[in-house]
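Input record, target 12 of the design panel.
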């Protein structure tokens, strides 16, 4: 999935994924890794609710699975090629081609927000900024699910050659709490991807400040 990494300086809001879009689609669309985990998570959401997929790519397999489960899907990705493929595959869904950092999230709120394979593509400060934006995009009982390794680590993206890095579970928990989100679960999928399942504090659900 793609977004910007200091996109003003780099000139590539897709973080290198536009250049490798055909290969990314070939690999991702042959894999169902993560689908079962996302479907399990989505069962906690209202039937037919709205879900925002950040770094949605071509829509396969995650957005497609959510769409097939009856949810109203909204996607954001910074790669023109991937968003064009998303539109072809999911013509009744909504998609915007823009950098996550600059997005206004369709100027609405959602029952769920997911970011699978996205968070660790961002610089540390941008990861924190994104997490801080999430509560504004969620309905009071909404859920936010994202992936990133539990370990504090860095590695080279095999497709783009750019650096990816995780803040680590302990730091994510601090940032989530500061943003007004509480961690309700952590999961591992069949590809050993680590998921953080979060929701707004109960105080926010009751309207307390």
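The sequence produced for target 12 reads:
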């Amino acid at each position: 999935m793609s977004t910007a990494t200091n996109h003003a300086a780099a000139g590539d809001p897709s973080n290198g994924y536009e250049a490798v879009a055909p290969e990314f689609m070939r690999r991702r669309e042959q894999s169902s890794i993560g689908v079962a985990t996302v479907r399990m998570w989505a069962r906690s959401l209202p039937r037919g609710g709205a879900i925002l997929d950040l770094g949605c790519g071509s829509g396969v397999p995650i957005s497609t699975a959510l769409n097939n489960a009856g949810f109203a899907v909204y996607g954001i990705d910074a790669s023109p090629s991937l968003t064009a493929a998303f539109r072809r595959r999911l013509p009744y869904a909504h998609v915007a081609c823009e950098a996550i950092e600059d997005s206004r999230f369709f100027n609405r709120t959602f029952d769920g927000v997911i970011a699978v394979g996205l968070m660790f593509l961002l610089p540390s400060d941008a990861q924190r900024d994104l997490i801080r934006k999430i509560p504004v995009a969620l309905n009071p009982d909404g859920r936010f699910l994202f992936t990133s390794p539990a370990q504090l680590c860095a590695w080279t993206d095999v497709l783009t050659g750019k650096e990816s890095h995780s803040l680590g579970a302990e730091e994510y928990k601090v940032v989530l709490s500061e943003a007004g989100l509480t961690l309700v679960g952590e999961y591992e999928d069949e590809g050993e991807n680590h998921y953080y399942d979060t929701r707004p504090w109960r105080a926010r659900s009751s309207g307390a400040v």
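The CA atoms of residues 132 and 144 lie 12 Å apart.
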